Amino acid sequence: MDTDGRLESNVVASQAALHRRYGGVVPEIASRRHLETVIPVLRHALAEAGRDLDEIGAIAVTAGPGLVGSLLVGVTVARAVACALEIPLVGVNHLEAHLYAHFLPSRHAAGFALPAVCLVVSGGHTDLIFWRDHGDLEVLGRTRDDAAGEAFDKVARVLGLGYPGGPAIDRLGRDGDPGAIRFPRAYLEEDSYDFSFSGLKTAVATYVRRMQAGGAEPNPQDVAASFQQACAEVLAAKLVLAGSRLGVKGVGISGGVAANSVLRREVRARAAAAGLEAWVPPAHLCTDNAAMVACAAWHAMARGTAWLDPVVDPSLPLGRPPAVDEVDTRRAGNGDNPGNRS
Amino acid sequence: MRILAVDAATAVLTVALDSPDGPGAELNLRGPGAHAENLMRAIRTLLDSTGVGPRRIDAVVAGVGPGSFTGIRIAVAAAKGLAYALSIPAVGVSTLDIMAAAVWVPGLVVSPVLDARRGEVYGAVYQNTPLAEGPLTGYLNLPMAKFLLHLRELGVAGRPVCFLGDAALKHASLLRRELGPEVWVAPREAAYPRALVAAALGRERLRAGEGGDPAELVPLYLKRSEAERLCES
Ligand SMILES: [Zn+2]
Description:
By secondary structure, chain A is of the alpha/beta class. Helices cover 46% and strands 12% of the residues of chain A. Chain B is α/β, with parallel strands linked by helices.
């Protein structure tokens, strides 16, 4: 990202194929692969931007939340590069970075304005956030059990589609009838902005098992389409409801599940019906990428609130950099010992 | 050639800055833990206290293990980042080589042994072998009992042997009982790798034309991840 906040390159090395045979991300394998790919990815990003290393003015890196082994690889390499080039290292919260996908230039995100209500929805998160201003965030609700992305992965397994589940279900569901099967929608208590997807996940598994027990093969297209519809309706409904109640100009989605075509359509439709803008960044900016990390750091630097010399925190809370003793306490609590041999 | 060396595979984080024409500087921090946060801070301290700017480093050496997966990854990650950003070569040296090189003398059998958990060790045996050629045994990851068997088969029993490392300390009486009175176990102070030794080994490797591209620098895990093991079996 250049001085004016323009994106010059955005390189992603996905590990989806690597983790497919294990049906999900294996932390140790992820850490190993990140270490192998980090230098080629850095080279690629600079080459694509047509820049030299000595033109870099700051490095941004995700410090949490996430898998500790992967975070350590990223932060250690970034710290070393920053030390070598004698430039600042800026720590970014991964969730906050997903929100900054809305500030990345694209025609879909044009007109994005704060305050806004945004949903970050992925394999690790389902968080509904009231984003008043830069650095001023409030989590309105989150999942009480599985992240939406986990439900996609589980349903994909039930349908024998493999990992990652999202894209496969999206493709399959295109030829199905979203009204064919009425799966439960968990709206929880009235006024709650929390989510729950474990019931939906179980309902899909039970439906498929019952059909098979009765000697029938469930129609996978219909199952995929109906599951997605149930999932997308709840997500979009709560997002738009929060947007209307809080009187913002519009609502946004990002995170891996925000690449799902049904959710994108549902959010656009419901926002339009409520007279709200719908900010839906292109899919490649919704899924994990470093452009959003650079963008979050760029805004923090512009406001003089950048988190300099960050430390890795696997459970980094949203909204502010943690105090050092706070991180230490949490670390002692979860028994994480970087020196252990695992 | 001014070399920055680092090893974080064991309970001791060790960082050194070494040049052939001047005194070296070395920083050792005994764990447990916090290697990740201390690593770059230690490098920074070393550079600041010697008055050497990062751009005056000519090569980076990383201890690649075996040892703590997290430890070897952060050492390799730091070496990759520095070498890449400074456009200088990076070379990896086995942590067991680094340990053995500190005590090796011709005729003496030297065996660094590190705890690999679940009753296993990482170990190797060096004997009358220039370290550039590596250990007699290769780098091993075995249950302690099997490692002992290996040592017996090599004809080590009854001969002077120097063991070093946390597993050697832990199994000192077992080693003496099984291999005889000539067994010498290095005290805690000498039981861990030293980055100045790593720098010296790295210098030889670089001279021999090894290493270079930081993208090619790889950890020496010896073990597959748990998931891979479960998947295979
Ligand atoms: Zn993400």
